[in-house]
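Newbie here. two chains, one complex. Structure please?
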Amino acid sequence: MLRRVREFSGFALPGLFLYGVLVLVPIVWTVVLGFTDRNRFAAETNWVGLQQFQRLLEDDQFWLVLKNTFVVTAIVVVVPNVVGLALALLLNRETRLYRLLRAVFFTPVILSGIVVSVIWQSVLRPDGVLNAVLVDAGVTDAPRWLSDPGIALFSISGILCWQLLGFCVVVYLAGLNAVPQELYEAAIVDGAGWWRRFGSITWPMIASSVTINTVMLLISGFKVYEHILVLTNGGPGRNTTASIAFDVIEKGVRGDRIGFAAAEATIMLGIIVLLSAVVLRLLQRREVNL
Amino acid sequence: MRSRLEVLRPIAAIALAAVFFFPIYIVVMGMLKPADKIQSSPLGLPLQPTGENLGAVLGRSDGLFWSALLNSVQITVLSVVLLTLLSAMLAHYLVRSHALWTKPAMLVLLAGLMIPPAVILQPVTQVLGAAGLMNSVVGVVASNVAYYLPFGVFVFSGFVGTVPVEIEEAASIDGASRFRLFWQVVFPIMRPAAASVMIFLGVWVWNDFLTPLIILGPEAGTTVTVGVYRSVGEYSTNFGTLYAFSFLASLPVLLFFVALQKQFVAGLTAGSVK
């Protein structure tokens, strides 16, 4: 018995303790705070029941940041997945050239979101490189990529796609490498064309790569924060590019409306749990069916 | 037909990679140009490269870059070492133990993979504040270890299964304690998993922005990533210096990537082809 206690406290306790105190307790704490009117500058905190949630659901700004988050997440889940697979098929050769090009596409993956935002700001600001090129090409009123409310959210989504693309390429390349070559040889003997081979062999065989990429992109898109902070600070205007994570942090962590932000964070938590469960279930069913 | 497509492959691949790399090219070249050239010829090569932007960052009178670098190195090294040790031991314990609570515990841990930092950050500052760890490197390390523990456990637990139970049983019959057994027999077998955990967490922790911004706060200095953010406002008219700061902040990770490229890819793909 003593030995088992000693093993538990040596192997499992340190990690479980930190995880409990700095992840599990804060999750519960956030949910509880969402039922209060806690404010950094108010002396007392009162239990207000569902009032914060009610205010949120009646707040147009909440629905706006929620919509923005879903737009970014949808673009980020689809584009790097599709383009990443196409690029993986293009780069699926084992020579030095292709290894170098893979490294090129992977580089933004290892840069921080802040640095990626600085890089793209140099390209997209009104007098930046892209507009200089457009003006030289004869475009008279070049788009304001980060300050036009109709464009800015798509610019941010595009930048996230650029950063995450290399991850998808590498995961798909590994998936493609694991497909037995005999399958292709047999299919060619049977007279199957490129599309037929892709649809009947490649696509089903890389199912687990699709799962990994989709889940990673979903989580990355849903929690987008740094890019918005540097590139638009939520603007132009009010919240036109703010995400739900951005709103929670600005209001609750850097701002003073702790209770209100906690209710918003609780909704965020509910959505991510629901989304992950649905997506994992759907994608794994496809893997099992093989 | 087929061979004509094969001729196009390298051309298409190089062209796409060039377009993709273009923004990075602008920043690296801009860093080597004097301020007026960044604006007047952003696309051109720096014909007379200057080190003044890099020099301006490295030689700041407040020493911001160097103090930020020291913070980043301390936070990254401590976090990664602790995470590797704790998650390897926890994963081994949870997979091998027959107790009833370990399966649910594993599920609760893996659920943590999906929690966005924004959801828990406010209470985390309260917990760290109560423990007297706000505005300290130790506070950032503690919060990193807790937050990234699920990832480490996830990777190691996939690997524990590949260690033959017979080896562990044989060693324990010989009277080895579980600690000795783990460090001398099991952990060496899990070295590839340890490599990918360390590579990933190293990059993530180094690039992390929100946690050091809030927990370290301005009182205890910054990390290099937060330093880049602070420079965005400061150098809003001097892009060359901002580019130089961004480059220097990313340089350690880039060198790490160039040196360990094979392991990077192996680590990334270890889980994806299973």
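Moderator note: Chain A has a mean pLDDT of 89. Chain A has one domain: 62-288. Thread marked as resolved.
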